[in-house]
Specification:
Radius of gyration: 20 Å
Distance between the termini: 35 Å
Number of strands: 9
Strand content: 15-25%
Largest sheet: 5 strands, mixed
Oligomer: single chain
Number of helices: 10
């Protein structure tokens, strides 16, 4: 699909959702500017204009029937990357009737399902239907959440690694949050403060998604997932040997804030050569070019 076709698919899906859920209590556009930019790129395409990079955002609220509560309210917070549906949208599910462990499991299983069934296709309604069919497994204490989750994922544990880019990371409270959240969620990786700021977290898929959901709602000039890696337990055993599993896929032994010879007037720029060496020693030097557009050395 071309970039124009991506934009057309996004706009068509938003308009379909708007017609299916006509009230703001059901469907709410939270970034009208991005939607206007998307609409303009579709309705008034210009070959000389740069491709749109707007990220339409909206909330979709659903009441889902469950056996033990009589129904629960779910809120889907959705963001379309500019190249959706080539890549999956960012969909975060919130429900006040779920504890953190239940919500993390639901989020992880939904993401795995969409990745396995919706590559290259619009998928918000598919997510809604999956939630209607499966939410009770996570809410109802009489249901076997472990067995239902295994049924959804085919019994496969998912290991993830997120490479996050920020325009800068200076704030001491944010840096403290990054360290504390990674420890709380059992994630390994590193953060590099300064300009630009880099965060890498790796571990169970649900824990990585929970970390990202907390981080992105803080106030940032710019923050995004530059690259992500997701591997199932079967794939992990294939790469690491039968005894390895996904745990052996970790490239970092713990989580640390890394500094690489800070310099500049404010001491906020790092030596990128040392960063490249740090990444190379851990077998992930290829992400250097993804961040900076040049090969490291």
């Amino acid at each position: 699909m071309s970039q124009l076709e991506w934009a057309e698919s996004q706009l068509a899906e938003i308009e379909l959702l708007s017609s299916m859920y006509p009230t703001e209590s059901e469907f709410e556009i939270t970034d009208q500017v991005a939607l206007a930019e998307l609409r303009e790129s579709v309705e008034s395409p210009c070959s000389d204009a740069p491709p749109h990079h707007s990220r339409p955002q909206f909330l979709l609220r659903q009441r889902v029937d469950t056996s033990c509560h009589g129904g629960v309210d779910l809120t889907l917070s959705c963001t379309f990357p500019f190249d959706y549906p080539k890549v999956l949208p960012e969909i975060n599910v919130r429900c006040t009737d779920l504890n953190r462990a239940q919500q993390t499991r639901l989020q992880a299983d939904l993401t795995v399902y969409l990745r396995e069934n919706c590559r290259g296709e619009v998928c918000v309604l598919t997510a809604v239907e999956w939630l209607k069919d499966n939410a009770q497994h996570y809410v109802d204490p009489t249901s076997s959440s472990d067995s239902s989750a295994a049924a959804v994922t085919g019994g496969a544990e998912v290991f993830s690694r997120l490479w996050i880019y920020s325009h800068h990371i200076y704030n001491k409270n944010k840096r403290k949050n990054i360290l504390e959240w990674s420890k709380e969620l059992g994630l390994s990786g590193f953060s590099m403060p300064g300009k630009p700021g880099i965060v890498c977290v790796e571990g169970p898929h649900g824990a990585c998604e929970e970390f990202w959901s907390r981080l992105k709602v803080l106030t940032w000039k710019k923050i995004m997932i530059r690259h992500r890696e997701d591997v199932t337990s079967e794939e992990g055993r294939g790469r690491a040997g039968d005894e390895g599993g996904v745990a052996s896929l970790r490239k970092f032994s713990g989580f640390e804030e890394a500094s690489f010879d800070p310099h500049g007037n404010r001491g906020n720029h790092m030596d990128l050569g040392l960063l490249y060496q740090f990444l190379s020693e851990r077998g992930c030097c290829e992400v250097f070019q993804m961040y900076f557009g040049v090969e490291g050395r």
